[in-house]
Amino acid sequence: MSQQQDYVLQAIDDNDIRFVRLWFTDVLGTLKSVALTPAEVEGAFAEGVGFDGSTIEGLTRRSESDMLLRPDPSTYQQLSWHGVERSARMFCDLSTPDGQPALTDPRNVLRRTLERAASLGFDCYVHPEIEFYVLGQIGLGAGDVEPIDSAGYFDNISGGISHAFRGRVVRLLEELGIAVEFSHHEGGPGQNEIDLRYADALTMADNLMTFRTVVHEVAAEHGVHATFMPKPHVDWPGSGMHTHISLFEGETNAFYEPGSQHQLSRTGRQFIAGLLRHAREITAITNQSVNSYKRLWGGDEAPSYICWGHNNSSALVRVPTYKPNKSRSARLEYRAIDSHANPYLAFAVLIEAGLRGIEGEYEVPEEIDGDLRDLSVRERHVLGYDDLPHDLDEALLITEQSELVAQTLGEQLFEFFLENKRNEWKSFRRQVTEFELRQGLGL
């Protein structure tokens, strides 16, 4: 038994833990959980915990249903929110009964991509800015979604629960060992943002799954509703998850080159070029819901066109320079992704797209200073700027032709993902919306 496993067993005993929750995700990034009593944890380390993988979205075929959960002791943390009786959690890797990593495990997909990056000499770090809404009332009609406040960007609110809500989330995250950089009110009513301090991509994906759970738990404590839906209301700004990415070669930031434009190295420029070239084919992964495209094409700061720039809020990829002389802070920001995505799959395709830019020595196009939304369709076409997909259907048609996504996800998970999202689009397409009724009935 490893030292980490010994530490976990001792921590369970020292803290009188009653339940250990084993966490993993399905193809969509929905958190799954099974609770073990302390007496079963040592056996879980040694042999895994068996379950029927065919009942979980996208994990295995019914003819190959037996799977094992293998807890990762490095992810052990005690849970401390209200209503959890002395519980802890560990994230799990999934395996087949013969001990092979499950090809359809989203966590394994990201790990494979990071191993590929390591073979090229790179460690990958990410830092997400996570936006979400807190609502006091929810319903199915447009008027049945009520925010908890009417504040705006960076507003300091007297009274209400916004400060207390964010403060409680941050405290719980820090108790779980998840470092928070800052938090604030965002531009929409009841909209908030919490930024996690950078970490390696696999740890950050785990942290994001924990983050979502903590936000929902705090919402339940306050008797309100939290949503990571990209566009919960037509008149409100969308919620995205701008993700900062950096590559390191040992202690050296591979994106930093003093004296170059934006202090950005050739490697960084090639990574940008990879993100831009492959943006359309990975969008179904980074923006996986029907609602995601209401944000991308909603007319706010979400990117709609494939371009890059510096201090340009409309660009798909931005090069921030908050600390231009600090080499470790050099990074790229991908602005299309939303927090409804499966973080394991989304990070994997973003990193793979950038790595292909480096390997293929892609040339980055000229950066954009202005806002492409100010140009006409013809002007953008003449200048050679492509659109991101306009809806989930278009995104899926592009993704199903993508060798990059198929190879990154693996054939089986790729097909499961496409099938699930095609079914979502078909269900959406059958709906008769309030807009159609108003138009058709003259209301």
TrEMBL record:
<feature type="domain" description="GS catalytic">
    <location>
        <begin position="106"/>
        <end position="443"/>
    </location>
</feature>
<keyword id="KW-0479">Metal-binding</keyword>
<dbReference type="Pfam" id="PF03951">
    <property type="entry name" value="Gln-synt_N"/>
</dbReference>
<dbReference type="Pfam" id="PF00120">
    <property type="entry name" value="Gln-synt_C"/>
</dbReference>
<dbReference type="InterPro" id="IPR014746">
    <property type="entry name" value="Gln_synth/guanido_kin_cat_dom"/>
</dbReference>
<dbReference type="InterPro" id="IPR008146">
    <property type="entry name" value="Gln_synth_cat_dom"/>
</dbReference>
<feature type="domain" description="GS beta-grasp">
    <location>
        <begin position="15"/>
        <end position="99"/>
    </location>
</feature>
<dbReference type="InterPro" id="IPR008147">
    <property type="entry name" value="Gln_synt_N"/>
</dbReference>
<dbReference type="GO" id="GO:0016874">
    <property type="term" value="F:ligase activity"/>
</dbReference>
<comment type="similarity">
    <text>Belongs to the glutamine synthetase family.</text>
</comment>
<keyword id="KW-0067">ATP-binding</keyword>
<keyword id="KW-0547">Nucleotide-binding</keyword>
<protein>
    <submittedName>
        <fullName>Glutamine synthetase family protein</fullName>
        <ecNumber>6.3.1.-</ecNumber>
    </submittedName>
</protein>
<keyword id="KW-0436">Ligase</keyword>
<dbReference type="InterPro" id="IPR036651">
    <property type="entry name" value="Gln_synt_N_sf"/>
</dbReference>
